Amino acid sequence: MDLQTRIDAFVQLGILLKDFSKSNVPIKKPLLGFEKYYEMMPRIIEDAKLYNGWFTEDNIRFSFSNWANELTKENIENWMRHYKLPVKKSKRIALIMAGNVPLVGFHDFLCVLLSGHKALIKLSSNDKKILPFLTEFLIENDSSLKNDVVFTDGQLDEYNAVIATGSDNTSRYFEYYFRNKPHIIRKNRNAVALLTGNETKKELELLADDIFRYYGLGCRNVAKLYVPENYNFQCFFEALYNWKHIVEDIKYMNNYDYNKAIYLMSNHKTSDLLDNNFLLLKEEESLSSPIGVLFYSYYKTQAELEELLLIKQNKIQCIVSKMELPLETIDFGKTQTPRLTDYADYVDTMKFLEKL
Length: 356
Known about the structure:
Blueprint: H1 3-19, H2 35-51, H3 57-70, H4 73-80, E1 92-96, H5 106-115, E2 118-122, H6 130-141, E3 149-151, E4 161-165, H7 168-177, E5 183-186, E6 190-194, H8 201-212, E7 222-228, H9 234-239, H10 250-265, E8 273-275, E9 280-283, E10 293-299, H11 302-312, E11 316-320, H12 349-354
Parallel strand pairs: 1-2, 1-4, 2-3, 4-5, 6-7, 6-11, 7-10, 9-10
Antiparallel strand pairs: 8-9
Helix pairs in contact: 1-3, 1-6
């Protein structure tokens, strides 16, 4: 493997993704020699939409846009400087990918191939269309990848290490099944937002993006709010208005209506259940809320909140807040635009691969 050739292949992929990151925008000049991929991409997007109803064109193109921004020569080379790569002895890494949001496993895919290892990929049944197509494009740019990427629907075999993403239930199976192999096993996590009551309208509007993007299905979606006692939710609800169009999606609204009916039939206190006709706010300790629902809890002091977050940090993917905290925080509106250095579950995937 020639590292520079491989980096250049991903840079070219970034250009392709950028060209398809916006709908109804004519592509003036396709990459020379790759016209067939430009002809095929609209059909791939359409197939992905038909295959998985949660993969709307807007969400697919949003994912493309984020990866296009990251896959630049400068970004990749600056990222790679922190590691001694590529590895001297290539190994085969089994990747078991989730399918909750478009290209959710792409970062693992990128890490394995840039580190100099080979990828044995088991895709989620919910996301089988886009990554194989992008892999074909990469192989066209770097022929050595033809022997470095294998997709399988069957049982995994002949692999040296595993990176698997799933639910808390599947993780128990993964941890047992892969106990004798070096592994990264990811479980359920969610983002949380910590509010002070002094947030601007713009900050709350950006927070709405963190909540609703991908319908809240991603591990980086904000599923829980922590608010001070006597917090007034009026400004928060007004800031959600830009996402009112989500009511037009029947799958989302079916979930919203179902959860609302369940809560009402369960005789929940009306003071604990706030509603703006497309999102329910429910007072609940859990960090993981269902589609159409956002959980919230009150806190008395920041010190109390910090202690709670430290206890629950292994269930938190990221924290959105402008508070100064002992834990890492990110800005409002940034949960769904992670950088190359933003590793899932705070586990450095590149360092793991480097040491194999």
